[in-house]
Specification:
Blueprint (H helix, E strand, L loop, with lengths): L3 E9 L9 E10 L2 E9 L8 H7 L3 H4 L5 H12 L3 E4 L2 H14 L9 E3 H8 L8 H8 L9 H20 L3 H10 L7 H14 L8 E4 L2 E4 L19 H8 L7 H15 L5 E5 L6 H10 L8 E5 L2 H16 L8 E3 L9 H9 L5 H13 L19 H6 L18 H10 L3 E5 H5 L12 E7 L4 H9 L1 E4 H12 L4 H8 L4 H25 L9 E6 L1 H5 L3 H32 L4 H29 L5 E8 L2 E8 L14 E8 L10 H5 L7 E3 L6 H4 E6 L10 H16 L6 E4 L3 H17 L4 E3 L6 H10 L4 E4 L16 E4 L10 H12 L4 H21 L7 E5 L3 H4 L1 H7 L8 E4 L1 H13 L2
Parallel strand pairs: 1-4, 4-5, 8-17, 8-18, 9-11, 9-12, 10-11, 12-17, 19-24, 19-25, 20-22, 20-23, 21-22, 23-24
Antiparallel strand pairs: 1-2, 2-3, 6-7, 13-16, 14-15, 15-16
Helix pairs in contact: 5-7, 5-15, 6-7, 8-9, 8-15, 11-12, 12-13, 20-22, 21-25, 22-24, 24-25, 28-29, 32-34
Length: 914
C-alpha cells in the first residue's frame, strides 16, 4: 500500500454521476501522519446548482461561473492522485463519482487503492453517537470551519485518519490481530490498511497497558469494585437555609423552592407517617438535586436509596451529571450504580463463540470489530455505550446476557463477567439508579432483582402507570412461534445440535424426542383452534374476544382448547425432567456447547411464559383483562392486557419499600389533586406542590387561531393540507427554533412531504421524527441550528431537554387526545365505564391536559427561558372540554386568539424584546 494518502472530498450537483457534475474538489496529501500538501478548486458544472445544494454547500451558481471546467483540471487531479492511496469518508461515493468524471474527460480509470474512513470510524471509534463527518469532527474536537465544502471536508477527514491511526497503534496486538482477520469485509483496500498498521505494530511490539488484561484471546479493561467507606461524622442534614449555604460552599446556588423540596423529601423518609408521598415540582427548579441531597444523608449499601426514572437516557444523566456535581460538596460521596436489565450487558463467553464461528456478513463483522475495541475501554459491558439506535441485529441477539444463572464457574470468562461485576458494584453502592420498566418487571420475575430497601424515589412519576401497563402486556405471534420451531427442528440447527450433545445419553434423547413431538402437537392444535375464529376476521383486522364468545365455541373447539392447555402442561413437565437429567453434565461442556445449552434454556424460559399466556388468554375473564385477537394475512397474534397493572398494591415490589416518594412536573389536573394517586391505587396519598419559580406572564405567550376548519370533520388528506397551509404561513418568516408537535405519525409525514422541499429551497431544513435519524440525532441537529424546524410526536411531547434559545416557539397541531378509533382506547373506556367512571371526563380530558402541560414544559425549563406556544386546534376555545383543558395551563398565561399575521408579529416582538 502506498505511503502517501490522498484524502479526497467532492461536492456535486447531485448523487447520480451519469447526470450530475462535480462543483468542488478538495484533496489533502498525508505522509507519515503529517499533512504535506493541499489542493482545492471550484469547478463549473455547466448546469445549474439547485437551491438545496447551494444551501447545503454555500456554493452558488455565480461563484462557479468563472471556475474552470472539469475538463480543464482532470489531468491535474489524475496526476495528483497517481501513486497514492485514495481516502474518503464514504469512499463508494467519492471514488466512483470522481472516476466517472475522469473517464468522461478521456482519462483512464483510477486503479489506486482506497480506504473508507466511515468504516474505520465504526470499527475504532465504536462509542460515537454518529459517524457523519461533521458530528465526528465536533465530538473529537477536529477543526471543521466549512462543513460541506470540499477543502474543509478533506482537511477534517485527513485529521480523522491520523486520529484513528493513533487509536489503532495504542490497541493491544491481540485485538489488532483479530480485527485484521475480520476486516476482509471492509470496503476496497481498507483491510490492507488495517493489516499494514498491524504488521508495523508486530515489528515493534510494546507491553500491554497496565489497565488491560487478556482472557482467552480477548483484551479486556480491568474492573474494580470500590468499597463503600462510610463517614461516621458530619452527616447531619442541613434543614435551614444557613446550613445549606454552608454546605454548598458557593459551588451550588441556593434556591428557595429547591430547599423546600429537600426538606419535604428528608422529613418524609425520617418522620413521615404515610408510606407514600407525591410531590409536584416543575422542571428546571433543580428537582434532581432536590431529592438526591437528602437521600444521601440516609443511604447506605445496606439500605440503598433506589431511584427509578423514566428512561435509560435519564439514568445516565443522573450518573454522569447530577451525582458528580453533588459529590463536589459532600464529605460522604454518593456511590451510585446504574442498573439495567441483563440483556443490556454483553456475555463475553457468547461473544467469544461468535468469533470462533463468525457469520459471513459485513455488518456482523463490523460490529464484532467495534466490540473488540470497546472491550478495551468499557468497565460495565453495557451495550448502550455503543450508542446504537437499536440492538436488534443478529449479533446482539447472540451476545446479550441471559443471566448469571446460566454461567458456569469453570468458564474462562466467569471471573470477568460483566453481570457478576454489576452485582458486586450494587452491593457497594448506596444509590441504585433503575428505570420504570425494570421496576415494573419485578412483578413478572421469578427471582427478585432490585433489592428491598427503606427508600424508593420514583422520578418522572407521571410516566409510571403507562409503563407498568405496557410491561404487563402478554403477547404471542403464532406465525413467529411456528417459524422459530420450524427453524429449530431443521438439520444442523438448535434441536439437532442439542441431540448431538447428548448422543451418549439414551434417556435424555428419549425425553428430548418427546419434547419435540409435543411442540409439533402444540403447533397443529393452535392452528385448528384459531381456524374457528379466522373466518370471522377479514384479511387485516383486530378484535376483542369476549367471555361470551369464548364460552360459545363449538364442542370440538372446546375439546381442542383443553387439549392445548394439557399439551403445554406436558411440555413444561418434560422441560423439568430433561433439565434435571442434563444439568449435572452441562457444567463440563466447552464454550460453544454451553452457548447452545444456554440457547435451549432461554427457549425453555420463553415456553414457560408462553404457557402462562395461553392459560390466561383462554381461562382468565376478570373485568380488568382484555383479550385481543388479530390477524394479518392469516398471521394470528394474541395479546392479553391488564388494565389494573398500574395498581401499586397489586405488585410484588410495592411492599418491599418502607417509604416511597413520587416526584414529577405534572401529577395533578385542574380540579383533581388526587388524579395520579387514584390511577396508582393509592388514593389517600398526600400531595405537596412546590410553587413554580417561573414568571409565565413575562416569560411566555399562548396563542390560538381566530379562525380554522373544524378538524373533526376533515379527512386525513384535507387535515394535512390545512396544517401544511397554516404551518407554512406561520413558519416562513419566524427566525427562531420551532418545535411542532403532532398527535399522529401519519399526519406528521403527510405534512412533512408537503412542506420540506419548499422550505429546503429557502434554506430552511425541516427535521422530522422517523425521517433522517434517531431522536437523539435529530435533537442534536436541531440544537446546532439557529432557525431549525422540528416535527415530533409521541416522545417529543416530554422528556426533551432543549434549554435556553434551543427552543423558543412551540406549535401544537391538535389537542393531544388518544385516538378513539384504537381498540385499546375503546377497551379501556369500556372498562372504566363498568367501574362507574366517565372515561371522557375522568380519563381522556385529564390525560390530554397533562400532555399539554408537558408540552409547555419543553418550552419553559428555566427562569431565563422565553417562549411562545401556539395551539392550532380551535377546540380549546370553542368547546367546554377544550376550555377545561386550557385551565390546566398556568393561570398567568392567558390564551390569546389572533390571526396568523398578528401571531407572527407578536412572536417577533416578544422574543426579540430583551
Amino acid at each position: 500500500m502506498k505511503n502517501t494518502y490522498a484524502i479526497v472530498d467532492i461536492e456535486t450537483t447531485g448523487t447520480d454521476p451519469k447526470t450530475d457534475r462535480i462543483i468542488q474538489f478538495g484533496c489533502v496529501l498525508v505522509e507519515n501522519n503529517q499533512i504535506v500538501s493541499r489542493f482545492a478548486t471550484d469547478i463549473n458544472p455547466m448546469q445549474p446548482i439547485s437551491k438545496q445544494i447551494q444551501n447545503l454547500t454555500h456554493i452558488s451558481n455565480s461563484r462557479v461561473k468563472k471556475a474552470p471546467f472539469f475538463e480543464d483540471v482532470a489531468q491535474t487531479i489524475y496526476n495528483l492522485l497517481e501513486d497514492t492511496t485514495f481516502v474518503a469518508h464514504n469512499i463508494h461515493f467519492d471514488y466512483h463519482f470522481l472516476n466517472h468524471e475522469l473517464q468522461r474527460c478521456g482519462m483512464p480509470p483510477l486503479t489506486i487503492a482506497g480506504i473508507d474512513t466511515v468504516e474505520l470510524a465504526q470499527i475504532f471509534l465504536p462509542t460515537e453517537i454518529s459517524f457523519r463527518l461533521g458530528d465526528l469532527a465536533e465530538s473529537l474536537g477536529l477543526a471543521h470551519d466549512a462543513p460541506h465544502q470540499a477543502d474543509s471536508d478533506a482537511e477534517v477527514t485527513a485529521s480523522l485518519l491520523i486520529y484513528i491511526e493513533s487509536i489503532m497503534r495504542n490497541l493491544p496486538l491481540v485485538t489488532m490481530e483479530k480485527i485484521t482477520q475480520l476486516s476482509a469485509v471492509t470496503s476496497m483496500q481498507t483491510s490492507q490498511y488495517i493489516a499494514s498498521v498491524f504488521h508495523e505494530m508486530q515489528e515493534h511490539p510494546v507491553q500491554i497497558a497496565e489497565e488491560l488484561t487478556v482472557v482467552e484471546g480477548l483484551a479486556l479493561r480491568k474492573k474494580e469494585v470500590p468499597l463503600f467507606e462510610e463517614q461516621q461524622f458530619g452527616r447531619k442534614f442541613p434543614l435551614t437555609k444557613k446550613d445549606k449555604l454552608a454546605l454548598y460552599q458557593e459551588k451550588l446556588t441556593y434556591r428557595k423552592e429547591q430547599g423546600k423540596l429537600m426538606n419535604h423529601v428528608y422529613r418524609h423518609f425520617t418522620e413521615g407517617t404515610h408510606k407514600d408521598l407525591l410531590i409536584e415540582a416543575s422542571t428546571g427548579m433543580g428537582k434532581t438535586i432536590g431529592y438526591l441531597l437528602p437521600a444521601q444523608f440516609l443511604a447506605t449499601p445496606e439500605e440503598p436509596v433506589i431511584i427509578s426514572t423514566v428512561s435509560l437516557l435519564l439514568q445516565q444523566q443522573l450518573m454522569n451529571q447530577d451525582i458528580p456535581l453533588l459529590n463536589t460538596i459532600l464529605d460522604q460521596p454518593i456511590q451510585a450504580t446504574v442498573v439495567k436489565s441483563k440483556s443490556h450487558y454483553i456475555d463475553l463467553q457468547r461473544f467469544k463463540a461468535t468469533l470462533d464461528a463468525p457469520v459471513q456478513q459485513k455488518q456482523y463483522a463490523l460490529y464484532q470489530m467495534g466490540i473488540l475495541v470497546w472491550l478495551t475501554q468499557t468497565v460495565t459491558g453495557d451495550l448502550d455505550e455503543l450508542n446504537l439506535i437499536r440492538l436488534n441485529h443478529l449479533l446482539f441477539q447472540e451476545i446479550k446476557h441471559f443471566g448469571v444463572e446460566y454461567l458456569s464457574p469453570s468458564q474462562p470468562f466467569y471471573q470477568d463477567d460483566f453481570l457478576r461485576h454489576l452485582y458486586a458494584r450494587m452491593k457497594q453502592s448506596n444509590v441504585l439508579i433503575v428505570n420504570h420498566a425494570l421496576l415494573a418487571q419485578e412483578t413478572q420475575r421469578k427471582h427478585q432483582f432490585i433489592p428491598s430497601s427503606r427508600y424508593l424515589i420514583i422520578d418522572e412519576a407521571h410516566h409510571l402507570p403507562e409503563i407498568m401497563e405496557k410491561v404487563s402486556h402478554l403477547f404471542l405471534d403464532m406465525h413467529a412461534f411456528e417459524k422459530k420451531i420450524t427453524h429449530y427442528q431443521e438439520e444442523a440447527q438448535l434441536f439437532d445440535l442439542i441431540e448431538m450433545l447428548i448422543d451418549q445419553e439414551p434417556e435424555a434423547i428419549h425425553l428430548f424426542e418427546l419434547y419435540r413431538a409435543e411442540l409439533t402437537a402444540i403447533l397443529e392444535m393452535q392452528e385448528d383452534i384459531f381456524s374457528e375464529w379466522l373466518p370471522n376476521l377479514s384479511v387485516k383486522q383486530e378484535e376483542i374476544v369476549t367471555e361470551e364468545e369464548r364460552l360459545n365455541v363449538s364442542s370440538t373447539c372446546e375439546k381442542n382448547i383443553q387439549r392445548l392447555l394439557l399439551y403445554y402442561d406436558e411440555l413444561l413437565d418434560l422441560q423439568t425432567q430433561f433439565l434435571s437429567y442434563i444439568k449435572p453434565m452441562s457444567d463440563q461442556w466447552m464454550n460453544r456447547q454451553r452457548v447452545l445449552w444456554i440457547d435451549l434454556l432461554r427457549f425453555f424460559d420463553e415456553m414457560v411464559q408462553q404457557s402462562y399466556l395461553i392459560h390466561q388468554w383462554f381461562s382468565c375473564w376478570d373485568a380488568n383483562y382484555v383479550h385481543f385477537l388479530s390477524v394479518y394475512n392469516q398471521r394470528v397474534k394474541l395479546q392479553l392486557v391488564d388494565f389494573d397493572a398500574a395498581i401499586l398494591p397489586n405488585t410484588k415490589w410495592y411492599e418491599r419499600y418502607e417509604k416511597i416518594l413520587y416526584i414529577g412536573g405534572t401529577l395533578r389536573v385542574s380540579g383533581d389533586r388526587q388524579y395520579f394517586a387514584k390511577k396508582m391505587g393509592i388514593p389517600e396519598t398526600p400531595l405537596k406542590i412546590i410553587p413554580t419559580t417561573y414568571d409565565y406572564a413575562q416569560q411566555a405567550k399562548l396563542f390560538t387561531l381566530t379562525e380554522g376548519a373544524p378538524i373533526n370533520e376533515l379527512t386525513p388528506q384535507e387535515y394535512a393540507d390545512t396544517l401544511a397551509h397554516q404551518l407554512t404561513a406561520l413558519l416562513r418568516d419566524i427566525q427562531q427554533p420551532v418545535l411542532v408537535l403532532f398527535t399522529s405519525h401519519d399526519i406528521l409525514q403527510r405534512v412533512y412531504n408537503r412542506m420540506h422541499m419548499r422550505f429546503l429551497e429557502q434554506g430552511k431544513e425541516i427535521l422530522a421524527q422517523g425521517i433522517g435519524g434517531s431522536r437523539e440525532k435529530l435533537l442534536k441537529r436541531f440544537m446546532q441550528s439557529k432557525d431549525s424546524i422540528l416535527f415530533g410526536a409521541d416522545s417529543f411531547w416530554e422528556g426533551v431537554d432543549l434549554p435556553g434559545d434551543s427552543l423558543q416557539v412551540l406549535i401544537v397541531t391538535r389537542l393531544p387526545f388518544e385516538n378513539p378509533e384504537r381498540l385499546m382506547t375503546q377497551a379501556r373506556h369500556a372498562y372504566l365505564t363498568e367501574q362507574g367512571i366517565n372515561p371522557f371526563m375522568q380519563e381522556s380530558i385529564p390525560k390530554a391536559a397533562l400532555k399539554l402541560r408537558q408540552g409547555l414544559g419543553r418550552l419553559i425549563r428555566s427562569e431565563e427561558d422565553k417562549g411562545v406556544m401556539i395551539i392550532l386546534d380551535r377546540r380549546i376555545v370553542t368547546t367546554k372540554y377544550g376550555k377545561k383543558i386550557a385551565r390546566a395551563l398556568p393561570k398567568e398565561l392567558p390564551l390569546i386568539e389572533a390571526s396568523i399575521v398578528k401571531i407572527k408579529e407578536a412572536v417577533t416582538d416578544f422574543l426579540e424584546k430583551t
